[in-house]
């Protein structure tokens, strides 16, 4: 019998308890032993809840109980979640988490403690919600040299953009809907401004390229600057606007990562990743491209990945899983501004100025477009070059086009 404790009984934590209760039989078969929830740690009481009797308010009860072999951290943040994870690992308990902020910021350190204590720190649910992506990268694709990974990594912003593109919804209505469905972070600014996606692309870059990336180094641009005019212009270019996280090797021993809205061709698979779904493309030198698609947020999809990690931790008590990456040498992480791409630009300027700066461009328009602006697609430039060329223009939007 594997006895577990869940720290944090919010959307994901309660989903974990629900899935464990509902699928007890198949989980026991897959784990080769029964999985029992002994404690649930939360500040709140849950009168009438099926797990009411398991609620505790003091973490030391869990840390001090040798019967608990697996701790599930679904609290979020890097305060108490970090401390409880450390203490659990140091006490010889495996830890399973959906906490991307903690994995991106402290994963390297926590994995080292897990190694020392011969236990596991597993975080499949930290990227892509219910989509299997950590194991495919670290196991199924391990024969490859991986050179790029990119995709739609945030369900909330994808839901908002889809509602704006497909149903003409307002930003605020779509956000409220995402919050009501339990997709959004406690503070949705992390979703909207691209920080959540930055944490996820950070973890993917760590695992794909094998060297540590500091989440603070990743430039994140969210979707608050995407307007319905941008959505319309993008349509005329045969594209949809998607918030992408992207990490790529930029040289022999250098790499970069960033998050930004992109124009994605409607002929690509990624452009059809709509609503709360996530889609992640990994490129390896032996495989070529592989795309992973599925529910990127929400109670049960995320619980699906967490519970699979619990099963894995139960099965690997004496055989560690190797999820790890190295320290990065100085100069490893390069500035994403130097990544070249074609660009969509919307600006208040003159035809003459556009001609002087860019020569020939591909102009875009739609019925009802504002009369005081031009929108166009450029050739390939890096961001610094583009900023110089648009220097004299009143730029309203400027997004990369994914080719
Ligand atoms: N707020 C996150 C999202 C939850 O919307 O994708 C899943 O990580």
Shape: elongated
CATH architecture of the largest domain: 2-Layer Sandwich
Structural class: alpha/beta
Q: What Rg, in angstroms, do the CA atoms define?
A: 23 Å
- Global mean pLDDT: 96
Separation of the first and last Cα atoms: 51 Å
What is the structure about, briefly put?
With 403 residues, this protein is an alpha/beta fold.
Structure notes:
- This protein has 403 residues and is an alpha/beta fold.
- The chain folds into three domains: 2-130 and 299-315, Rossmann fold, CATH 3.40.50; 134-294, 2-Layer Sandwich (Dihydrodipicolinate Reductase, domain 2); 340-402, Alpha-Beta Plaits.
- It is 35% helix and 26% strand.
- The protein contains 14 helices and 16 strands.
- The strands form two sheets. Strands 7, 8, 9, 10, 11, 12, 13, 14, 15 and 16 form a ten-stranded mixed beta sheet that branches.
- A hairpin with a 3-residue loop joins strand 11 (277-284) and strand 12.
- Helix 1 (11-22) packs across helix 12.
- The model has no long low-confidence stretch (mean pLDDT 96).
- Bound molecules: L-homoserine.
């Amino acid at each position: 019998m594997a006895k577990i404790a869940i720290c944090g009984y919010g959307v994901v934590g309660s989903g974990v308890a629900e899935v464990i209760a509902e699928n007890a039989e198949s989980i026991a078969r897959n784990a080769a032993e029964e999985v029992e929830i002994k404690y649930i740690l939360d500040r709140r009481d849950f009168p009438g809840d099926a797990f009411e009797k398991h609620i505790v308010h003091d973490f030391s009860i869990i840390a001090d109980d040798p019967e608990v072999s697996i701790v599930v951290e679904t609290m979020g943040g890097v305060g108490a979640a970090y401390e409880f994870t450390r203490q659990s690992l140091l006490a010889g308990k495996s830890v399973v988490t959906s906490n991307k902020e903690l994995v991106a910021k402290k994963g390297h350190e926590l994995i080292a403690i897990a190694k020392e204590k011969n236990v596991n720190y597993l975080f499949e649910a930290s990227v892509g919600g219910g989509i299997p992506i950590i194991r495919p990268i670290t196991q199924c694709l391990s024969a490859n040299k991986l050179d790029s990974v990119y995709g739609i990594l945030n369900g909330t912003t994808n839901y908002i953009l889809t509602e704006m593109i497909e149903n003409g919804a307002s930003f605020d209505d779509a956000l409220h809907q995402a919050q009501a469905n339990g997709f959004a972070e406690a503070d949705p600014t992390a979703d909207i401004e691209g920080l959540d996606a930055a944490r996820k692309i950070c973890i993917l870059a760590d695992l794909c390229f094998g060297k540590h990336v500091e989440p603070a180094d990743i430039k994140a641009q969210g979707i608050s600057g995407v307007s319905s005019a941008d959505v319309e212009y993008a349509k005329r270019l045969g594209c949809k606007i998607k918030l992408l996280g992207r990490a790529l090797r930029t040289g022999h021993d250098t790499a970069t990562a960033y998050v930004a809205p992109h124009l994605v061709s409607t002929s690509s698979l990624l452009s059809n990743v709509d609503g709360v779904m996530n889609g992640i493309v990994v490129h390896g030198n032996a495989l070529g491209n592989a795309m992973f698609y599925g529910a990127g947020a929400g109670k049960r999809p995320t619980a699906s990945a967490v519970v699979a990690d619990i099963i894995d931790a139960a099965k690997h008590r004496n055989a560690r899983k190797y999820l790890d990456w190295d320290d990065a040498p100085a100069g490893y992480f390069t500035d994403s501004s130097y990544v070249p791409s074609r660009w969509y630009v919307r600006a208040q300027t003159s035809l003459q100025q556009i001609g002087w700066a860019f020569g020939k461009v591909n102009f875009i328009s739609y019925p009802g477009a504002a009369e005081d602006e031009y929108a166009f697609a450029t050739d390939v430039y890096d961001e610094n070059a583009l900023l110089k060329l648009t220097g004299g223009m009143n730029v309203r939007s400027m997004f990369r086009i994914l080719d």
